[in-house]
Target: DEAD/DEAH box helicase
Amino acid sequence: MSSTQKLLDLLINLDAGSGRLVKHFSFPGRPGIYGTWPDWATPQVVDAFKTKGIEKPWQHQTQAATSIHHGTHTVIATGTGSGKSLCAWLPVLTALENSNDANKRARLKDWARPTTALYLAPTKALAADQAHKLTELCPDLTGIRLGTADGDTPRETKEWVRANANLILTNPDYLHHVMLPGNQRWARFLGGLKYLIVDEMHYWRGITGSHISLVLRRLLRLCRLYGANPTVIFLSATVAHPAETAAALIGVTEADVHTVAEDTSRIAAKELILWQPGYAIAENETEPRRVSATAEAAKLTAHLVGADARVLTFVRSRAAAESVSAHSREQISAYYPHLIGSVAAYRGGYLPEERRELETALRTGQLRSLVTTNALELGIDISGLDVTLTVGWPGTRASLWQQIGRAGRGETAGLSVLVAADNPLDNYVMAHPEIIFEPVEAATINPTNQYILTPHICAAAAEHPLTEDDVAVFGLPSTKLFSELEQAGYLRLRPTGWYWNVALHAAPHTLTELRGEDTEVQVVEAETGRVIGTVSVAQADAAVHPGAVYVHQGQTFQIIEYVPAVVGGGVRPATVALAKRITTQFRTVAGSQTSVQILDADNFSEGVTVWTAPSGKVTWKHGRTRVSEQVTDFDTLRLPKLEYVGNQKLSMPSRVLETQSTWFELADEVATELGIELKDLPGALHACEHAMIAILPILATCDRWDLGGLSTILHEQTFAPTVFVHDAFAGGAGFVHYGFHHGVTWAQRTLDLVAGCPCESGCPGCVQSPKCGNKNNPLDKGGALKLLKFLVRNAPGK
Model:
């Protein structure tokens, strides 16, 4: 096993004074504080933990388990590797074991509906990992009938689980699509549900978190109808405001949730390296560019594996997982041929048995490294890992610390490396590493968003008729929404409540996607039918329109067919773009037109929040907007200097999105007072918009692609220079709302980003955006700096 110091020396030697090793942080370990096994815990369960080497629980484990045992909703928000699972499994296994004891079944209904427990994981990998550990823990516990049920589970196994299991491990998707719609078949299990475990609570944020909140509320509603009242257990190492987040997920008050956040476990020493790739001149180019984060990570992975380290390399996409693993294998083949076959990719889209084999191979040491998406970020305890590599800022501090926590567990020290990508957010982190250690982001959710809530109301009505009592379940002020859905033909009102209209052909549980809309368009080689890559729906119109040059792993293709479909007046993205292989020195850049309509402009009291600076020279607002965007044309550029060759018009449908926006309106005299000439004002506003979008993910729990924006020197409704930033989700996701209430911090962080970039006129590391519909023109970095300094003094929040 390699030592941490040996690996640190390796990185220092690889850096060789080049400046790629930007920062090194060391975190000392600490001893733990033991608690005692509680008196209520069943001896058989305690003995099971002892056989796994746990002679005593940590003090926080005793406290959390006792709170759960007493029936209090509890959130355990202690560090990665602090034993949160034991906090849950000690009371859960005790309850199941006691339920199996005939002497403790005092009432007849206890025989008909014995105690059950449900565990929900965000990923199949995490559920499989928990099942593996529970199977090893519980061989002598006769009261535990464990079953896993998800999309990978064989049909016969699912039937056994439904009929016999008293502890089921699954995910919210299976709950939404199978268990809740068929709740009558699951009456035995739901009627006895005593404990519900929600693992990796911080994962449920934004649009997905809002969906999961409503799934949980529907589950608890059915349990109450069947006579159960489950205690909910939330687990998360990285979440801000844990009690508030937990309460929002299940629709109770914060006072109803007990928080255990003081970590008393033993912590191993950790080392964190910030690494920024250097510059190189690519083939056919004359100007040096920063080496890509994925290419740098492939080299680092190979050299660390060559030093006998066990490595997890986290990347942002499936394509990156395949690319980095392939390039790592090439490096290993060249420098460490005895380790060929020691690196593999791990991502969604693999067969279940392939994923399980990879997980086992990493645990046993057969594989030295996996290059993975966040599928292995969450909770999986693979002991003996030496290093984690995080390729590009993972979106949130919460995700970063989750990934860091995978290296070095127990008494074993761990090493983590954050490899920066060449974008504003990563550059900001490299220049201001202190933000890594700020409190993790709030898990923003908005289950009352009508676009999200409406299909769940329909699903709930199909599960059991809605009544006035269900208003509180879904956080509604009245039954008005039920009546509106009745008038629209989705529900039918009967004396006993609102029912789903079974005459409709659609099944209510198919009206929504829990994890957002379909997120990828496949790029398929027309001649072979081979899938050569994927593009997110948000980028598809601009990246794979007809005529676009698509570059994948150094190979060039031209898109010959991509047609978004128009359905019911709205645009549904195509799922496939056909491409042909070409050799070309040309590249394409799409242009688009965006407009923003303020929906509550005439009645601010109804929907617009307003803050005006004491100076009266700028007003910030937040409210509902309608955003229209259309890809209109593309430029053809020639390498290596990206010289303009020509422009071609496109006929693409316009996309319309009703969402939430935060915007600011400037008084006419501001530009003059700041020394920004009228001809430079569009570029200053545009650069400010790009930078604000780039930096907001540092504050809110989101990604750059979860946001959009518009800047204009004269908006048709505000009659003033205006900059909009909007959530890129129907109904909004709460991201820009968070930005509105933290406007000062948002403006200051944006100013720090732009001022700290060494470029003169703007670059991809500060004010240029890869998703700009105006092809990053015009941009005025100097004007943006003046404007941002003004905003820091004139913004809402503290």
